[in-house]
Batch of 2 targets.
Target 1
Amino acid sequence: MAVNIRKHRGVVSGIFPWGTSRRYNAYADYLKIRFGERLQKVIIDAGFTCPNRDGSKGYGGCTYCNNDAFTPPTGRSDQKIREQLESGISYLSRRYGAQKFIAYFQPYSNTYAPLSRLKKLYQQALSHPSVAGLAIGTRPDCVDREKIDYLETLARDHYISIEYGLESPYDSTLEWINRQHDFTCWEEAVAMTTGRGMDICTHIILGFPGETREDMLNTTRILSSYPIDSLKIHHLHIVKKTVLAKKYQEQPFPLFTFPEYMDLVVEFLERLNPRIKVQRLSGETQPGMLIAPQWGGLRADAIQRRLEKELEERDTWQGKIFDKNNIRNSIFTDKKIYKEY
Ligand code: SF4
């Protein structure tokens, strides 16, 4: 990996392979470069549910899940898509001066419906003149070839990102958090989506009690060997009104302190394939919903700044010790979709 770094009077600067001076491949920077301006996500609640809640896979959901806790109150399922977009766009353009937006179908599983319903919802969002594309959060067991074929047609004219929740590549953890799907299911969804003109994003949570630090660093090696385009990294946090909250209150288990998490994320990023863009570096809940860890009330933007400082102080960056041999072992290698830096 070529890194064009300069040192002047002790200050390190330069351009990393992803085209910016930030020490990790930030998704926000990628969107700015790709679209020539800042894009904001407008959250849409289209009234979906989830197979892990309605009984088709399970009841009660993943143990850490409380959708109300991580969805800002801008998207409301009782409002039409157009109304949600109008109110989100008006708020975000006032706050950030943004002109272009991604309609983000976020709460629950946003491909969990017949294709005819999905078409209507996605087309409504894309018909708004300020919407440049869609981000669709879902479970890997909620897609099939027909849905992916349809999204591929949308991706010819629009930016489409599909986000597959994985949370951990270890089946023992997936069982512990009651995900009701295994790692192979995620692999199959990624294989089905690869090479279809869409961005593939994956969600991961670091800090499950059954995983060692070495396991979590191995997670970055595993993910780096798949053709995913971006990653959302969350720390395990305990949210009110969840099964995990009950477990934690009955029998508390260790959670990361802030310095421990910073240390882990730096090492995680050092091993991460530099082509994978990072969308999030920590989890976040709505005010008043968090049980632990509190970390002095630090919010995601402050955590990001602290991490950037940490990368700078350690003079390190995403992919610094990424092992390309990972890719050669991947079952996806023959798809030749890797752009190597
Ligand atoms: S985290 Fe996602 S998959 Fe799990 S219960 Fe919540 S909405 Fe369903």
Note: Residues 50, 52-53, 61-62, 65, 67, 108-109, 139, 165 surround iron/sulfur cluster (CB under 6 Å).
Target 2
Amino acid sequence: MPKTTPELPQVARYKPYYHELEMGKTYLWCSCGLSQQQPFCDGSHQGTGFEPVRYAAKEPHQEVLFCGCKHSADKPFCDGAHNDLKADYDEDDPNSPENLAIPIVAAGADGRALLNGGCYVSKVERIPLQEHGNLRLGPVISATTGALYQSQFYAEVGSGESPVTHFGDRHTIALVTQGRGQITISGRVFPISPHMGVYVRPGEAFSINNPDTLAINLFLAVCPQAEQAEFLPQMPTGFETDYPERTVGVDPEQRQTMADRFFQILVDKCIGSNVVTQFIGDVPKSKAAMHRHLYEESIVILKGSGFMWTEDLKTPVATGDVIFLPRKQIHSLECTDPDGMMLAGVIYPGDNPAINY
Ligand code: FES
């Protein structure tokens, strides 16, 4: 029997255990890592100094990820700490005979390459954009294309002030991919520049001022999902002053490691977005082992190229593409670029992009 100490639990496995909990039932999560009935306690902790953690379901059919590595700071749940217990992220060989046999899917007439389980990669340049003054706007992810939680729009803003745009009582999280200017959010003005995340609270509206001839391009994630934007005759007041910070730029000091990968949270609860999280990250040339998440995710490829894999299909991805990933869909995003891949994602509902299973 392996030994453990109160300072050092045994790793049962380097990823969490998915469970759907029964309402009214109490679960005893193994904290020492020695139980033979993972992730639950079988009494093996006796004499180790560890005690099991008790948890009762908070809602019917509550889905949880119980920590398997026993190093989470959010016990009994996974907080992504398992990614940092090894120097390398778990990888898979894209050139294995099984992987080479997986067919490559091409994008259809609508610009989407359809993978398993409703996952797809969208060639954004093929999305039809509608003109509203100097704003060109089109849906990339929506209920029509299978999303349950979030929608995403691609926007190009020409010179001048865009129409006042409103997504009702929803959170809007923007990612600027090109251009510099200002965004006005319900009367409050903020400078914007590439790779900046912007948060617009439910009920607020926004417009974008482009002082240049180069378009300002953005992706707009809207949660819960909206089929279309509303355009208001004038900018409303009512900026929520309890949340004064609304833009977050890339800051190397804020980068978090995930084995050999990096990510930085842009928009999250730190600036008031409690249920939607936006991040930006770097992926080295590699193919991550297949894994899942409990949140629905949209990913914009900002730089680099590779393949998006699901269980028995794969498709190329390149700079500017958007990936839609349903909850619990098994997948891997491979980077084939020696210089690595840069991406930005929005997860909803969720607050930690490092949690995978
Ligand atoms: S399995 Fe322990 S933190 Fe994820």
Note: The first strand starts at residue 17 and ends at 20.
